[in-house]
Every structure is written in structure tokens, then in C-alpha cells.
User: Fold Transcriptional regulator, LuxR family from Bifidobacterium breve DSM 20213 = JCM 1192.
Amino acid sequence: MGGMTDLSDSHTISIGVLDNDSLALNAIAVMTSRLSPRFHIIWSTTSPAMALQRCMTHGARPDVLVVDMALGGITGADICARIRRRTPTIGLVCVTSYDLDPYRQDAVEAGAQCLIAKDDIVKELPQAIRCAAQGEPVPGTGFPTAREANRKLNEGHATEGRLPENDKPSLSSRERDVLRLYAHGSSTDEIAALLNVSKGSVFTYVNRACRKLHAADRKEALAICARYDLL
Assistant:
């Protein structure tokens, strides 16, 4: 486990699954294990922290992580970026119950090898897992290889945590709306209702804003916005 996997027909691909919904987690794990005799689920968890720990632990590290894009207080893109920055040896397959478009660019920038709809798991996941186990994207999807993404994320890592000098980032109106509501004390559920979007979309807007602001999390993003009067 933990290296780029041989694609010979007899080779087992070890898989970890992360989804904050326990019912969805169990369904994905069972469904994935039935898609191919080569697919071996070595663990599944609803905890992002546990998934990160296992992905960084020898003996528990899977060849491929299947991760939901909406995880509650953190996004699947956040998890992918943290893993990809550390290693190019785990294939990252993102899944979502929502429309793909709002998540696609985040998944690409986070170093994932593909993004598929949960409704299409039976049809698309087998190829996605086989490609990701090799550190390769599904052909024609525009996603990066694992090694390309690892290199790119680490090249930009030195600038995280500070704004570019003389260059205020351009937050979208929706990103500003979401951060402004958080700054005023609104909860994620309240923001989703007020803006008529899903909770997953709220987390996506926060994640995009954090990247533009070079912030580690929402708290730091709000502090930067206050400091530079961005809201």
C-alpha cells in the first residue's frame, strides 16, 4: 500500500472511503467492494481527521481514497489538498450527490484525479479507481496526475498565510456574502437558507475564499477580510 499500484488484473487495489453521512459511507463502501474483485476496502470513516491520519500512516495508507466533497465543517477539496501536498502516492477520487460544476475546479486544484456523481458510481467508479491507483486522471477529464498536483501545491505552499503585497484578492460576490454572514454570527444552516443554496455550496464558497486569501481556515479568512476591509 501507499505506492503507485500495478494495474495487472491480479493486483488488489486498497481503498479508503470518507463520507460524513454514515448511511452513504456504508453504501459507497459496499458498492465499491462489489464493483471488482480487485477492490479491497481497508477502512471507511465519517471522520476527516481519522481519514487524514490513516492516509499518513504506513500500513493504513490506501492506494486510493474515495472522498465526498461535502463533509460538514470541512470540504473534500480541503482533505484532498492536505493529502496531496504531503504525498503523490495516494489516488484521490472525489464524489458528490450535488451538481458537479460547483466542485470541479476545487477538486482539480486540490490534486484529485477525478470527480464523479454518486448516481454514476457503478458506471464510472471502476475506471476512476484504476486510473487513480496509478496516479493518473481519467483520460479527457482535465484533472492532473498525482505527481503534477503534488509539485504544484508545494510550489505554492510558501505563500500561504499572507496576502500578496499591493494586491487585494478579488472575492466573488457570493464568497463575500457567505463570509459576511459568518462574520455576523450566522450558522452554516442559516447561511444556506438565506442564500438558497446547499450547505455543500456554502463550504465550497468558503474554501475558494480561503484559497484566494491564502488562509488556512475560515477563522483566518475572516481575520484577513477584517484587516483589509474586504467585505
